[in-house]
## 1
Amino acid sequence: MASSPDLSRVLPRVLIVSRRTVRKNKFVDFVGEYHLDLIVGYGAVPVIVPRVAGVHTMLDSFEPIHGVLLCEGEDIDPSLYESADADADAAGALSPEQLEAVRRLHPSDAAIDHEKDSIELRLARRCLERNIPYLGICRGSQVLNVACGGSLYQDVEHELGSAAVRHINYDDYDGHRHPVRVLPGTPLHEWFADDLSADDGGLMVNSYHHQGVRRLAQRFAPMAFAPDGLVEGFYDPDAYSPAEGKFIMGLQFHPERMRKPGGSDEFDYPGCARAYQEFVRAVVAYQEKQLAAAAAHVPRGALLPGSPKPLLNKEMEKRRRAISRSFSLAKDMYLSGGHTKPAEQRDLEAGAEFLESNAAASLSVQQEKRLKQMGATVRNASGYLNSLKVNGGREAAARALMAEMTVDQLADLASFYQTMGKICSEVLDRKLQAFATAETELVQICRTELDLSSSPELTWMTSRRGDAAN
């Protein structure tokens, strides 16, 4: 595995869609850790896209995307690819009885997850449109084929009608192997060259699936076949050059699970890890190409998205921290109602000093607006503190004065304020009543005037006055 990546830069992002299962009567999303270990080990960051309703509509929020790895999951909805073989011989199509038998035999895999289908097909098509590196393992290879117009066997055992190969073994998930024939001149042949059989280019692989590629999409070339003729690996020859950021590939078998017995982390063949190594190599190159393209359209000195932040010297870093604390305190005061310690009040001055010293700097309209907002927060916080001090002082003085009063004096004072409150309430009620009466009279006058203005006599009088004036 590669050495630790250089953490001084932002690492490329590889999206991986989770799979949903039920644990303790609740849905749980998960991704196989083998995949995550390999992605991290070769220098990329796995970003898990949760299989949650609605995620397919917000894939733009996961940008930038430098690579996509799709792996295990349920069967793909047949309606997404059946039309691709609508004109083909339907003799191999499964009967309702056979479909029911498949569902009983593969209950966890034969269920359809429409949300996962939608998320993964959209990601696959985005990769194909923008040449984003894509690696599909097992279901991920089937998604890739369907996204390009290919079709699938709904059940290999029934539709191929061959018992020559066992593609799934529920009793020995990791240990199960079956042979494949690797084609010369393909990436797979290059990765496993030292371990292929000299007679037929054979290789023993792990697999766990009951579906597979029926008709391979036109843009792809096969890399390996099982003895029953099932495609076990394919790629796009026009989109394969890891050093240039190009990688579009699907593997039906599981190279990540091909480990030696006894819980060992050692692979059956060195070529098993090459799929992930070359994939991440393409992901890194793709990110570098994207940054280079963006740099050509960014003003000099601007910071590119995903680029490392420039380092500050100790003095500048100290000032940055002080300013950041000042604005943070202002925010906390606003949310908490202005309660701060005396020592914290001095820290507020750093924000004001920063705004004053940068008033003449060359700022954009948006930056200037943002700074004014931040300054207003600091100033309002300071003003609020001063008002609290004044009110606090008055309250303390009142308490001290009343503490020296006798019980009778305090009772008289309370009675006085109660009487004043009652008088105030009565006067306010009278004023409100007078206002309401005046408003009612005004409305009545307006209605009377309106009725007069619309009467025939008033209309005739208005007309005569107009004639006389002329």
Note: Residues 13-295 form a domain with the Rossmann fold fold (CATH 3.40.50.880).
## 2
Amino acid sequence: MVDGEQRSTTRPLRPAAPPDGGAGPVPRPRRDTATGPAADPKAGPADATAEPADPKPGDATAEPAGAEAGRRRRVPFAHAVRMPPRQLAAGAARATRAWSRRPSGRTALPGLFLLALIAATAAAGALLVPAAVRKPQPVAVDATTNAPVQGVPQAGVVPGATGGPVDPGATGLPGTVGPTGTATPGGTPTGPAASPGVPGRPADALAGWAQKVSATTRIPTVALQAYGYAELVLAQTNRSCQLSWTTLAAIGYVESRHGSYNGAVLRPDGVAAPEILGAPLDGQGGRSRILDTDRGQLDHDPVYDKALGPMQFIPSTWQEIGADADNDGVKNPHDIDDAALAAGRYLCQGGRNMTIAGDWWGAILSYNDVRRYAQDVFDKADEYGRLSGT
């Protein structure tokens, strides 16, 4: 319907035969596979309905009787699928060689080779590097036990507690609790901290305080001076750490009984005599296996490492964290002054605050990753805090 007028268009039928005088064949009827074969394509208009002649031998267009109609056309490159693998490889090699001689090939081929080399290197690194990475070594080794490494307690939870996370400074840390409910460094020495320029042993300035606390805690005076002086130094150099001498004293007790392990005695200058050396770290008896790292210069063992001194440092760790707390110009792991300050510096690493339960437990377990060891240190530090009344 256009402009209100209905129109109809009738398309004329296509004539079945060409017009008079026209040229050209009549369109072939479609082959009917159900009733019989189609007419011969060479037949003229007059015999369009005639039966096809028998196919001649060698005729490319002839089909055998009963062949399925509509056969697929052959794809020109389909013969490549049926080529033998060796022939395919040879063809690919010839094509690659020809391409590499072209300007584009000469430019791209080195890049493809470099890319393949990088991929092979990355794959090899993913397999070899994890196997070559050594397990992290402990900082120190407990000289009094060969207990294997066990589970690590959760941050903020005191081992053996029945409740949930402990409020920092309440009961989750060794030492004492201040009137406001926050932890305070247990037993801060009252003596002055000697400056680095003072001759002699700076920790001797704490002799009066050490003698008083030694009477109740049974810690040797020389060792107490070292622990107290290390706390004072760290209070000036790393105030946010708030490390208490009770923690250092507990580590010294668990590691070497304050420098008395294996018959040793702390001299007035703080040096243990004879030297305290742990068992070879050869992987036997529950010990870690650590090959020599100092060529035997510190532990006198060129094969395996041995823990050193009152705080039982591994040689490689001492070379990294060692300190000179008595101003004698030597970082001596067998000197309780040097060892206590080095241990304090290690515990305070990474921005730890030792009045926070999670930081305290993390620091002790990083020193020696044994749960029972950390619990022993906690119990002894808490005991020293109670006995000293600070």
Note: Residues 34-53, 55-63, 129-136, 142-198 have pLDDT under 50 and may be disordered.
## 3
Amino acid sequence: MLAGVALGSFITERAAHAQYAGQMSSIVMDARTGAVLAQDDPDLRRYPASLTKLMTLYMAFSALRAGTITLDQSVPVSIHASIMEPSKLGLVPGSHLTVEQAILALVTKSANDAACALGELLGGGSEPQFAAMMTQQARALGMTNTTFRNASGLPDPEQLTTARDLAVLARHIVTDFPEDYHYFSVAAFRFHGRMIPNHNPMLKVYAGADGMKTGYTQEAGHNLVTSAIRNDVRLVGVVLGASSNGQRTIAMANQLDRGFDAEGVAPVPRPLVLARNTVSARRTRGGRVIMLAAASARHAPLEVAEAPTGRRSLRHGRRYVLATPVTGGHHVRLIGAKVRPATATTHRTRSGRSSRNHT
């Protein structure tokens, strides 16, 4: 029986990887009505990668709304959480972080150790139990083709979803938790003396984009969920299985443009895209300029970070911001006729406890 289960999992993984290699799935919806404005193979079952964290965040927002957890509540870090593969904060077993820090870590760095720790808190100490709760919640939202097996999105052959289901989840995050949606636009936050920047490139390259989440594993490809608002029209878009960061960004921008056009919203010129996975950075040492090439594909991280932008998000007097300046030597790709320079500023986080409005 065990051999049969193992063989079934192997076949599932090989079939999904082989069937959809190089093929994208995408969809864009009106966030208010749920009307589908553009789509391309939206019902293929695929690996969500770190888009899984959108459901982890939905569950956290739901628990905050119910009062079963609080933003400043301590989240214990287990050995299991600490050994999660990157991206991660590097949490140490026996240490703690707050619920709000965990939320910010998921949104910005897509930290797998923070996701696991938060999932264990919400799942009564068990990540598998939390994954079962996630799947149950998915069914309640109408995500009929989605199954979760962990809180982070690290590879599991049985953890599957579709572009349509993720668009449904994104709509619910926007409409069910308007008091929490602002977290997705946080450019960076300070954790233990270091600034953690946001991975989401759409925040800086697409007019009106204000969230949500990136995702990448070798099996899943480059995934992205984005919400953008123009002229009081909010759209949610999903791209799964892109071959690169640049391809998923362009695909997302194109489908959102089609969606806004279908809604009668005038187009907006796009700025340049900074593709971090093809970046070379300069460092000066002893009067010499040293060129540092980007990581090779063989050592590619599970989540690919891209340069953040200096945007602000305010919540009850607390300011989360920041971005490091863009350094020389970056390769850029143009996706529009109008080019604006990339700028960034650095701000400090205000001290003090955060409060929460219940709506």
Note: The chain has nine helices and 15 strands.
## 4
Amino acid sequence: MRQWPASLQSATWRVSLFTLLYLYQGVVAGFALTALVNHFAAAGASTADVGQHLAVVGLPWVLQPLLWGPLIDRARPFRMGPRRFWLVLALACAQASLAGLLLLGAPPGLTAVSVVLCLHSLAASLADTATDRMIADSVPAGELGRTSAGTRAGFVIGSAAGTALFAWILETAGFAAAAGALLGLTTVLALPALLVREAPDDRVVSLGLRAPPYRAEPREAAPAKSFMRGLLAAFRTRDAAILLAMCFAIDFGLALFQVPFAVALVQVHGWDAGALSRLQALLALLGGTVGALGIGAYVDRVGPERALRALLAAGALAFGAAASLIAAGLEAATGPVILGLASVVPALLYVALLPTVLLASRAGRASATQFQIYMAVMNLGDVVGAWLAGALAASSLVALGVAGLFLICARARPGDRRPA
């Protein structure tokens, strides 16, 4: 396979680009969803305030399929590449949004920070839609597990590094310095999108459309009515209903437990916010690197659905163990163990979940929109869980409830194609 010019026709460039793009997402998530949350929790923000912040930042990811799926599916291809044009445009807007953090002053209020990061999520969700469609179009089915492992490793390495780095900067230099470092680091990570093309003959930078005849898929110009019929038909099966429910339940359960537990460690049990951020980063790193690569190989060997059921069962056992530790009054003493149980095993779920969703979304005229609907339902679960977490404590009952959700998902067996 020709390696230059850099394009997605090369497996090496595919893995490199997709891993770096998810590394970008992880760095921002480490700053916005962990280091910043712990920083404001230490400053006195309540669980409700934290939940509201997470919900506001996550809202564009819930609206992602409505905003960007049809745009990516039905747009005419640009000379830069049918997906890469939108990727580069979205990353430019995302960086402009992050620059807005520098205008908030020091120290800013959590609400103002949430609004700016919501704008970033709006642009980043478009970049994510384009990236996922590029993965679906370019990665062979036999490589989906390894690709999912690479993207998951990129995300968690970025999240871990971002959490640890920005927790330290927030603690020692303040918000403005952390925002400036975030802008600089993410700009470097976004640059490879300008280098790697979808096809070797794509333009590096161009605003022009491809003149017919152009390299495209027949479904790209589908009329709106036909597009909607195909989209609705894709979700009228039992498989789709089960997968949608599973996507919602996984992130809903995780947010319902993890948000109040992290706040309680800082405000009730006296943990240092920086130390908590570093521990969360380390746990994410363990699960998302060696663990993700091993699970990726396992997914390619046994298939994503079988691997996903096994990991859901392991997640149920992990939350059951966490519930036992909390019920025994060991919440403060075994905080790192509980955090590990609630984060490492569930993190590995996504390595098997991504190929499952991609395979369920590849057919039809609305594949990008189908995939983003599954992802949006997952993000909706995260937003709803974070919002409801404001009224809950991280109790053994909540942990048992999450274990039950995971167990129900593990016993669900897609395969019946009858209408739901």
Note: Residues 213-222, 415-420 have pLDDT under 50 and may be disordered.
